[in-house]
Design a protein that fits this description.
Length: 478
């Protein structure tokens, strides 16, 4: 495949390419361009030219087209979902679900666009003040591998309805689904240059996009180290940034909790997408009176998960590459060496259908402590660390004693205790007594080193708008 710039498939200026591989087998199935600064400039100039017309498109027309794009995604769901399945390795039903959720977010952002309005106040006879919100301009959207379509829509859906144009750079591991989406949207009526996709691995093209003088906003989802570098670079040209970064999210299970429900919710959430998402449960603090009982319930649930081999079916796919795999392997080995109990898993899955991919068994690390990486660093894999605590307040102290603050989870039958713990969690989102998907209507983002800004709902759209104040004077007829 090639890059998609100004409504057309485009090779890199140098002609260089990089492989795209199936993480289930390790086999190459496609190539994409290895873009550089010249390719980034071409895409940005295209987006800048398109912005002059797109920003003037009436909101009703942008909304109408965005809803058409959402339906086009659903109609092409099988094609796009299959591409995602191949590049990510996640079981196909979950990939199809991602396509539909991403389309839903396009619709929701479109509806929020219709609610935008200007404000007018009177300063006295012959004086009015009008406050409008204008699109920020060209946006650079940099997305990770784990939910490439949904996380792209966090940014693209809000930017488009706000009147911005976009240059997207998907992960080098999962570029094909984003490229297919760009072509689909163009065929559905999105004007050329409004949505461009460049590809490339390494820092070169990313730095070219971030440092380019034309874009006015960078929207990034990814690791905290990269996010800090983007923020530092963006300030040189005073670009706005939205950064959704790492997480090491904690769950607190109180002695009075429904431990069956807690175990089910934590297992379902903690191992979704093989643990490869930022706001998953990573560590669990359990009051001692129910600690062993909870471990038993959680272990029984986790043992039900199956791994999907290449060409086969199952609940969990492989990890996307060797680097991501290493996070789990290193953290489990570290915990084992420091005295933790490995209740299940703890090693690579091998055998027919597994040897070609980076499959790590679903793993529970009991008796974890804060000397272990599993309780202090993001895992991004199918591993949960569990630690006993004397009371929920000790659990809250441990939960907050971390540089991340993306999500938190509390389980207790005492509503007053639960609300107090939720309010005490230093996190952007907190769940009480169950774990649902984050709502497309509500703000999503983190505190501390988990990021800056919020996405989704009206909050997401507002982050792509600038306020403008106009002071009007006129002669009052007598």
């Amino acid at each position: 495949m090639e890059m998609f710039i100004n409504g057309a498939w485009t090779a890199s200026v140098t002609g260089a390419t990089q492989p795209v591989t199936d993480p289930r087998s390790g086999a190459q199935f496609d190539t994409v361009p290895q873009g550089n600064a010249q390719d980034a400039d071409l895409a940005i100039r295209s987006a800048a030219a398109a912005f002059e017309l797109w920003r003037k498109t009436p909101m009703a027309d942008r909304v109408r087209l965005q809803k058409k794009l959402a339906q086009a995604m659903r109609d092409a769901g099988q094609t796009i979902g299959t591409a995602l399945h191949r590049e990510l390795g996640r079981p196909l039903p979950a990939c199809l679900q991602e396509v539909n959720r991403a389309a839903d977010l396009l619709d929701i952002y479109a509806e929020e666009g219709l609610r935008l309005h200007a404000a007018m106040t009177s300063g006295g006879p012959g004086e009015k003040t009008v406050v409008t919100r204008d699109p920020v301009g060209v946006v650079v959207a940099i997305t990770p591998f784990n939910y490439p379509l949904n996380l792209l829509m966090f940014k693209l859906g809000a930017a488009l309805v706000a009147g911005c144009t976009v240059v997207a750079k998907p992960s080098a591991d999962t570029p094909t689904s984003t490229l297919l989406l760009a072509e689909l949207f163009h065929k559905a009526g999105l004007p050329k240059g409004v949505f461009n996709v460049v590809t490339g691995a390494g820092r070169a093209i990313g730095e070219a996009l971030v440092n380019h003088p034309v874009p006015r906003k960078i929207a990034f989802t990814g690791g905290t180290t990269a996010g800090k570098a983007i923020a530092a670079a963006a300030v040189q040209t005073m670009k706005r940034v939205t950064l959704e970064l790492g997480g090491q999210s904690a769950a607190i299970v109180c002695a009075d909790a429904d431990i069956d429900k807690a175990a089910e919710a934590i297992a379902r959430h903690g191992f979704a997408n093989s643990g490869q998402f930022c706001y998953r449960v990573n560590r669990i603090y359990v009051e001692r009176p129910v600690y062993e009982a909870f471990l038993e319930k959680l272990l029984a649930r986790v043992r039900q998960f199956t791994l999907a081999p290449a060409g086969g079916e199952g609940d969990l796919g492989p990890l996307v590459n060797e680097k991501i795999y290493a996070n789990s392997a290193v953290q489990v080995d570290d915990a084992r060496a420091k005295g933790a109990r490995i209740l299940c898993g703890g090693q690579r899955q091998t055998g027919p259908g597994f040897d070609g991919g980076f499959y790590y068994q679903p793993t529970l690390v009991a008796d974890a402590s804060h000397e272990m990486l599993v309780l202090t660093e993001e895992t991004f894999g199918p591993v949960l660390g569990i630690c006993p605590v004397d009371d929920p307040w000790q659990g809250l102290k441990f939960a907050n004693d971390n540089r991340y603050g993306l999500a938190g989870f509390v389980f207790t039958r005492d509503l007053a205790r639960g609300l107090t713990l939720c309010e005490g969690m230093e996190a952007g989102s907190v769940w009480l007594n169950d774990i649902q998907r984050s709502s497309h209507y509500e703000p999503f983002g983190g505190v501390k080193e988990s990021g800056l800004g919020r996405e989704k709902g009206r909050y997401g759209v507002e982050s792509y708008l600038e306020y403008k104040t106009m002071y009007l004077s006129y002669e009052v007829p007598r």
